[in-house]
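Working notes for the structural subgroup meeting. M.R. asked for a predicted model of this chain before we commit to crystallization trials. I am recording the input and output together here so anyone reviewing the notebook later can reproduce the run.

Input as submitted:
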Amino acid sequence: MDKAKKPIRVYLDGCFDCFHFAHANALRQARELGDVLVAGVHSDGDITKHKGRTPVCSEAERYRLIRAIKWVDEVVESASFLPEVELLEKHNCDFCVHGDDKSCNADGTDSYRFLKEAGRYKEFKRTPGISTTDIIKRLLLATDDRSCAAEEGDFSESKSSELIQRPLAEASGCLEISPGINRPSENCLMSKCLAKFASKVERKDGDRAVYIAGDFDLFNEWHLELLEKARSHGDYLIVGVHSDEDVKTYRGDRFPVLTLLERVLTLVAFRCVSEVVAGAPLVVTEELIRRFRVDVVCQEKSENPLQPKPSQDEGNFELVEISVDVENFPIIERFKRNRVVYTKLYGSPDGIS
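Returned structure, recorded in token form:
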């Protein structure tokens, strides 16, 4: 009898700071090269040493986020910035894979030179259009007080009424390019990524469908816990993502930092997410409940009067309020603490295009 084929174990490492869809696509591509994906995540200390900046997200948070990605099987914490053959042997990995962009240590040497010399290294095409550096530059612009202060959105009673009446056709589950984004080649690439990211898990008869909505801008550990708690109330989690235009109504003109398509692509990479409604209405409607056959609507337990709240008058569903144990410390607030450092590294907003 032939022995069972040995699974191919692939190793990929990274900082995975300010997690975005290019990180997700790297993990997806790495997983397609084998049967098991081992993801190495660098520590805060190593990122500070080799990148010259403190990571926006802590190592503990980055470990948790990467474990929740649907293509990741194992995580190596505090992974070396200079991986050697011994690391691959320790984790029974056949080879290491990385994007085709250059990766260097603090001394300017190739981070993967030892694995390349040993023939244990492969490459895939890096995903253009977004990077952690790009997000940091967007954050520099979003937190530049000289231009215009980020204004609170006006979610008035009249605005709420207007949004309730908006047809779901204007906020459908079909992805549309957000207005104002004039990057057709990048949008085309992101649309192709979406097709590859899409969940292959079909909703079964009898599955209890849970719906939760938000902007999910600059995804972090708080968002993940919110989604995982929502998922615990059913079998199939549908996540509504508010459009760029709607997010501005309650967060101000400088938001969201990431576009609708970028936010959707980030979400669909997580194991707990079954389906995403892009451009979801701010207020849950009877039409939405009917179209997506929603059994449970979840919302964060919040005293914020600006936060739209679903009403059970809109359909036959169970309404559940969720308390999140993780502190809600938005990425943009963390960024402000080290803004001076990032400005020195990347330049002032005046010089950012």
